[in-house]
Each structure stands twice: as structure tokens, then as C-alpha cells.
Amino acid sequence: MAWWLWMVLGFLLLIAEMVTPGLFLLFFGVAGMVVGLLKLLGVTGPVWMEWVLFSGIAVVSLLLFRKPLLARVKQRSGEDVDRLEAEAAVAMEDIAPEKVGRVELRGSPWSARNVGASDITRGQRCRVEHVDGLMLRVRAD
């Protein structure tokens, strides 16, 4: 295969990675570009060797780097949500203890569970104690 075909394949796989979750196609895209570069330098050998290199580079890099990259991405995405803890929200409806209702925080409505012992009435301020996915754990202020 021509070197530029490997580069195009790698580039298309990298674009596909941007629209699919999981950091999976990234490694195949990089492998395609590496094989394209090696082909350009003339060190790949026959076509079957190019495919072996492509597969080997993709699988080895996937096994070595996917888990650390996923952990890093998850860590970054959690940082913004963690900043919501200890902030004040306003109840949009009455929320009994251990029940779920709606609160407004930073101008956006959120689902919230009242983890306190007292009722939270509509319009009352409450504190975010914990963020659990898209659910806030709140307590009356």
C-alpha cells in the first residue's frame, strides 16, 4: 500500500475517534500514521509486513496506553463537577428528607436528593454536599 494511503487511513481513524467514545480508534489511527511514515522511509518491507506492523503497533499501544489515558480523561472531567460541592443552590420545589426534587444551581436546574433531616421548602437555600453523576446531594442551609 502507498505511504499516503496509510496516512489517510490513520487520519480517518483519528477523525472517527472524535465522534465515538472509548479511546479505541485513536490507537489504530496512530498506528496507521506510523506505518505510513515507516513506508515513506522505506523500512516496512512487503505489504503483509505493513499489516503486521499496523496490527502490532495498534494492539500494543492500545494495551499499554488506553487505561492510563481513560483515567486521565475521567479525572479531568470530574474536576469541574467536584467544584459544585459546598455551593449554595435554591430549591425549585419542596423536598422532604431522603426524597428527590429539583434545585437551581448556577442558573441550571438539577435533580437533588435531600440528605438532611429537615424539609427543604421551595425557594430555600441549600448546600451541595456531594455530586453523584447528575444527582446533587443537598442539605438545608
Give a verbal description of the structure.
The protein is of the alpha+beta class and 141 residues long. The protein folds into 2 domains: 3-82, no CATH class; 88-140, OB fold (Dihydrolipoamide Acetyltransferase, E2P), CATH 2.40.50.140. The protein is 50% helix and 22% strand. The protein contains 3 helices and 5 strands, in the order H-H-H-E-E-E-E-E. It has helices at 3-19, 25-41, 47-82, and strands at residues 88-91, 100-105, 108-114, 125-132, 135-140. A 5-stranded mixed beta barrel has the order 1-2-3-5-4. Strand 4 and strand 5 form a beta hairpin. Helix 1 packs antiparallel against helix 2 (25-41) and helix 2 packs across helix 3. The longest helix has 36 residues, at 47-82. The chain is rod-shaped. The chain starts with a helix and ends with a strand. The mean pLDDT is 92.
Task: Describe the structure using short key phrases.
alpha+beta; OB fold (Dihydrolipoamide Acetyltransferase, E2P); 2 domains; five-stranded mixed barrel; 50% helix
Q: How much of the sequence is in beta strands? A: 15-25%
| Extended strand count | 5
Run of helices and strands = HHHEEEEE
Sketch the major β-sheet.
Answer: 5 strands, mixed, barrel
Count helical runs: 3
Mean pLDDT: 92
Overall shape: it is rod-shaped
Q: Helical proportion?
A: 40-55%
Terminus-to-terminus distance: 67 Å
Q: From the structure provided, what is the oligomeric state, counting identical versus distinct chains?
A: single chain
Low-confidence blocks of residues: none
Structural class: alpha+beta
Gyration radius from CA atoms, angstroms: 25 Å
* Count of all domains: 2
Q: Order of strands across the biggest sheet? A: 1-2-3-5-4
